[in-house]
């Protein structure tokens, strides 16, 4: 006689529960395998750094949790050594690199581009890379990237710079500014505004009295201002950067030009040097061949150093285009820039504290687009303790963003009114 199989409700329920448990285990295991397969590999981590030696031979060492492949190159005027790495995490003290030793005066580090980190060393003079090697981790010692530098002649350093830099790809003629674009109609309904948060990545910008970083302050503010402008529904708004990435000054100008922007606003929060520690308040700058005052000249020199700080090859900067139409457009563009700057100052007066003579001018490279009205706004000066407190205040940031939004409305009001009055096709 075959044994009777109990197929009652209790048995079926137990079987169902057992199947559910087995199924959930399988699903979890499969999900774990999928996550493991799709997860990005963890970035290498830099855990320590140091410089040792003298003016004849200097050693630079990076402690890392695992080996990566560096690319080392040189730049002249001023003399710098560049170490490019795959994107890594720098777990170093904030003051790392502020002083050097031997052939290295100081050095800095950070994200240079997406997927690419960089160390830039300022040099006392011409050098030669004698040796570069990686020491594997042993016992409690981390893996180490070692770069040995020796003193060299100017000719030897020039040769090193020439042979170590990647060959420049000559851009086609389509990338150059075209005078026929100046009269070409823009096929869009809304004005396009480019907001340019300064610095980023390896270029931290100014540092406040209490450690506030300019690159973080201006990015947060630019994103807030974009939200305000987007809420109006009147504009298309683009950012030159929306994360902690370095953008060269020339590329920032190109972005405004390529997008055929109707307005370009570069946003900064600088630190005043050369003893002018009492400067505070918002300031609006336009471009000028001659600085309006010493403070404007100092700030322009400081801001124009961003590419040097990040280790950009300045010889690759595009040359100025000489064209009668472009010269005429440049003059007209500067007139519109000054008009917006004055309107912005008027709006800011009732909202935030301004510096004395709040509209100033100097030769800021980031404002050099010949066909885009451009201004540079200093939200305040991080070298001033009172300004630093305001720059991190939500209430102050709201007032500043609202005032700038009103200034933008005023600048574009005539154009928007004409568009509304025009008969629909």
TrEMBL record:
What residues does the MurNAc-LAA domain cover?
253-409
Q: Which UniProt keywords apply?
A: Hydrolase, Membrane, Transmembrane, Transmembrane helix
Question: Membrane-spanning regions, if any?
Answer: 12-33
Listed under catalytic activity are:
Hydrolyzes the link between N-acetylmuramoyl residues and L-amino acid residues in certain cell-wall glycopeptides
Q: Where is this region: Disordered?
A: 168-190
Q: Please state the span of the N-terminal signal peptide per the UniProt entry.
A: none
Residue ranges annotated as compositionally biased, kind Basic and acidic residues, are: 177-190
Q: What EC number(s) does the entry state?
A: 3.5.1.28
Would the keyword Zinc turn up in this protein's UniProt record?
Answer: no
Which PANTHER family does the entry mention?
Answer: N-ACETYLMURAMOYL-L-ALANINE AMIDASE, N-ACETYLMURAMOYL-L-ALANINE AMIDASE AMIC
Name recorded for this polypeptide: N-acetylmuramoyl-L-alanine amidase
Q: Which organism is it from?
A: Roseibium algicola
């Amino acid at each position: 006689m075959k044994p009777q199989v109990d197929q009652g409700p209790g048995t079926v329920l137990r079987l169902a529960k057992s199947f559910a448990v087995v199924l959930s285990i399988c699903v979890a295991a499969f999900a774990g395998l999928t996550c493991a397969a799709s997860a990005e590999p963890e970035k290498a981590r830099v855990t320590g750094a140091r410089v040792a030696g003298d003016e004849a031979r200097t050693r630079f060492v990076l402690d890392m949790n695992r080996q990566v492949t560096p690319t080392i190159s040189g730049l002249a005027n001023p003399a710098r050594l560049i170490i490019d790495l795959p994107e890594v995490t720098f777990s170093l003290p904030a003051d790392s690199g502020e002083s050097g030793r031997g052939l290295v005066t100081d050095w800095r580090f950070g994200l240079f581009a997406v997927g690419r980190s960089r160390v830039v060393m300022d040099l006392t003079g011409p050098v030669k890379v004698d040796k570069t090697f990686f020491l594997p981790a042993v016992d409690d010692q981390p893996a180490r990237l070692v770069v040995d530098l020796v003193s060299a002649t100017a000719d030897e350093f020039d040769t090193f710079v020439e042979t170590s830099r990647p060959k420049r790809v000559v851009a086609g003629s389509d990338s150059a500014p075209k005078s026929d674009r100046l009269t070409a109609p823009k096929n869009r309904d809304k004005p396009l505004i480019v907001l340019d948060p300064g610095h980023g990545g390896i270029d931290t910008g100014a540092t406040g009295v209490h450690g506030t970083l300019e690159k973080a302050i201006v990015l947060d503010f630019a994103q807030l201002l974009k939200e305000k402008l987007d809420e109006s529904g009147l504009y298309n708004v683009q950012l030159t950067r929306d994360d902690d990435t370095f953008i060269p000054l020339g590329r920032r100008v190109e972005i405004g030009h390529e997008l055929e922007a109707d307005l370009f606003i570069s946003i900064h929060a600088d630190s005043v040097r050369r003893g002018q520690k009492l400067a505070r308040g918002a300031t609006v700058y336009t471009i000028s061949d001659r600085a309006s005052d010493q403070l404007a000249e100092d700030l322009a020199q400081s801001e124009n150093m961003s590419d040097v700080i990040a280790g950009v090859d300045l010889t690759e900067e595009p040359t100025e285009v000489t064209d009668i139409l472009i010269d005429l457009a440049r003059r007209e563009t500067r007139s519109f820039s000054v008009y917006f700057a004055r309107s912005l100052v008027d709006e800011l007066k009732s909202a935030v504290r301004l510096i004395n003579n709040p509209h100033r001018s100097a030769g800021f490279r980031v404002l050099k687009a010949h066909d885009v009205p451009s201004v540079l706004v200093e939200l305040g000066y991080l070298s001033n303790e009172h300004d630093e407190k305001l720059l991190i205040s939500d209430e102050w940031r709201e007032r500043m963003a609202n005032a700038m939004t009103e200034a933008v409305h005023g600048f574009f009001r005539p154009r928007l009114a004409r568009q509304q009055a025009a008969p629909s096709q």
